[in-house]
Amino acid sequence: MSGRDERTRRTIDRRAFMGLAAGAAALPLIGGRATLAAQDVPSGGHMKVAIIGEPPAVADAVFTTATVTNNVAQQIFEGLFAFDSKFNPQPMLLGDFEMSQDGLTFSGKIRQGAKFHDGSPVTAADVVASLKRWGAINGRGKLIFKRLDAISAPDTTTVKMTFKQPSGILPSFLARAEALITPAAVAEAAGEKQIPEDKLIGTGPYKFGEHKVDQYLRFVKFADYEPRSEEPDGLAGKRVPLLDTLDFVPVPEEAVRVDGLTTGEYHFADTVPADFSDQISNDPSLTALTVKPYYWYSPHFNKAQGLFTNPTLRQAVQLCFSQSEAMLAGFGKKEFVRFDPSVCGEETAWYSTAGAEAYDKPDLDKAKALLQEGGYKGETIRWLATKEYGYNFLMADYTKQKMEAIGMKVELVMSDWATLVQNRAKKDAYEIFLTGHSQYSHPATQPFNDPAWPGFWDNQEKDAVVDRMVAETDPTKLKAAIDDYTRLIWQQMPFVKCGDDFLLRGVRNEVKGYQNMPDWYFWNVGVENS
Amino acid sequence: MLAFIIRRCLTTIPVMLLVATGVFLLLKLTPGDPVGVILGPDASEDRRAALRDQLGLNDPLLQQYGRWLWDAAHGDLGDSLFLDRPVLTAIGQRAQPTLMLTAIAVVVTVLIGFPAGIIAAQNRGGWVDIGTMALAMIGISIPTFWLGLNLILIFGVKLRWLPVAGYKPLSAGVWESLQYLILPGITLGAAQAALLARMTRSMMLDVLNQDYVRTARAKGLIERRVVYAHALRNAMLPLINIVGLAVAALLGGAVVTEQIFNIPGVGRLLIQAIGRRDVPLVQGTVLVTAGIYVLVNLVVDIVCAALDPRVRQS
């Protein structure tokens, strides 16, 4: 089977699979407004985007997993693949590619016209060096490289990877912002350190311009960018740099982001509290955008040490409180939360509710019985919480009351977020902590699958099912593996999935062509009268 | 005079050493992990451990302190963990916004504080005095963040007279730059202006009751000359001290104002560095700020000594 045929077949198969999973989730991503047709989008001008803070490592998404860095990075860097609007990986820097059906061999050709911001063409050697760096320091990269037998560049435009174990997940991993391609010299020189600003050389529609820390990070149009020919679809397809300059302005104060948007200081405000939704919606010059899917939240149990090494007690906690009430306690506005037991948003191909019958069905009698069965003797349960993120404290406080109602003794250990992150890594420091995870990440890529990650879910059954999710190339078998994984979560209860929340963003109406994906991007976007 | 200056300069050394040690120990006692902020929430534990090693965060406390102090004594405050650049460079890049903001706040303080205090003293017990002092009390009591947010709401969002937030350097044009600093300057300077008004009133009342003022009036001098040429000059000495302290306080107070108005100055740098547990940057910023504080006080002492021989002799 030729590469092109294989690609076409896979695309059709994946889309059919997506249909099964996502149903009629037609463009829920474009929250709140339709996008203008490409011919209506103005070209040239300047756009200012208010972001939540200075991105760690500027735009090196391999070095850090911070979301803001990932989003910034994908304006200037590209990977071999990119996600379409339904989170299917589609080729970006690749032309033809082939993933063998057994998931053991991958080869692809770099698309014609792909070049770096310094003018040099992208070669297979650049791809190999970049992916080696990704494999050395990024969590997902490491997972792939553990399975890798060899990566090579048989000629200047062909990349080949062979695996010791099937790795069908590869395109999904390579579609993430972190699997970025830089010139080989840059990747090799950076190694495990972050790429210096003057070496932020990618292939994306914008290129690095200037960085004044805490003032702005400026990208400029990459005039020699040669877009793909396919229609734009999410992050995939045709990318056109329409803006002359694109500034990311760190604005940590939420109210200032909104005020700046209102007065026209900024064209786009990222991550706005839901409390501002009416203010933005009522302003005729602004549009409120809801990001679906976004994050889901759960209290994680310490499974390495203490009370909750016992799954019976974990089940007792899950049954003693209403997960939907916990979400409302944390996030307030009903239109910004979704009550759902899946660890992936319903908009994705990985959605599953298998085995989640107990979700949001509190049963106090059963919970008390489980508590007794699990041998709970009134020990104090230490719950690490922070007020730095309001939801974190509010959800913890609500659940604490419910746990106490069935006879558990809970102490909220309050600290700032940085301290909480430090303490949750200590096996003897707590019993529960609460955090959020992406709804649009492949379940195999969730950090809690790593037994060393806080909560310490160290379990052979879990490892086996994660391995299946990583290996499968067949969509039906992948779906079965995801169902088994979800079922295992609800059986073993390493955490209690409470629900999903959606993010609010604001955009001025002079901005045209913007598509509201969870990870924002500003190619194919223009600003009127800028 | 020279001996006085040398003596005052030497006393700053133990002060700076104490500040440096205090800041270092406080930060080390504070829990929190800079690596978590740098690498993001999904980073694996082995990667975090590797970066901690790379940054020297696992070294013994004394070793870390000794290394930092030695480097600081040689003018090297280390590298910011988060910004990946020398601490002094990071501070230097933010000096202009903070100095400009402080300068505008000082202007607001002096232009409002002095006249208000003098007028109140001249009209002691009258409605002007009561009204001015009531306003001063409100000015002292209003939290900076509340005043700032309301100024933004009124003059930025509603009236659209001034930008709501941000900063443009002087190189962008004087008005371009100044318009971003007017609201923050008023926010920052309001409390100090109120304080200065109360102090000026108090000093002026003391002086206006002195015999030489009565003599001046008895000689038939006009009231303006009595107040400005005789009373004010003698009230100035303690007021110079107060203005000096106000400058130092404004530098410190810029922390909150810069955060509210999104001004990329030293104060905002410090706040962010604390949140990120960027220890070298916090240490460096506090040390430099403390140094400026000490320097301002030194200058005030020298000015006072130059103006009043009694200070030199003490």
Descriptive notes:
The complex is a heterodimer of chains A (530) and B (314). Chain A has 530 residues and is an alpha+beta fold. Among the domains of chain A are: 44-204, Dipeptide-binding Protein, domain 1 (Alpha-Beta Complex), CATH 3.90.76; 293-501, Dipeptide-binding Protein, Domain 3 (Dipeptide-binding Protein, domain 3, Roll), CATH 3.10.105.10. Helices cover 31% and strands 21% of the residues of chain A. Chain A is globular. The model of chain A is unreliable at 1-38 (pLDDT under 50). Chain B is an all-alpha fold and 314 residues long. Chain B contains 14 helices and no strands. Chain B has a domain at 91-266: MetI-like fold (Orthogonal Bundle), CATH 1.10.3720.10. Chain B has helices at residues 2-29, 34-39, 45-54, 61-73, 87-122, 127-141, 144-158, 174-178, 182-208, 211-218, 223-260, 266-275, 279-307, 309-313. Chain B is globular, with a radius of gyration of 24 Å. Chains A and B meet through helix 7 and helix 13 of A and helix 2, helix 3, helix 5, helix 7 and helix 12 of B.
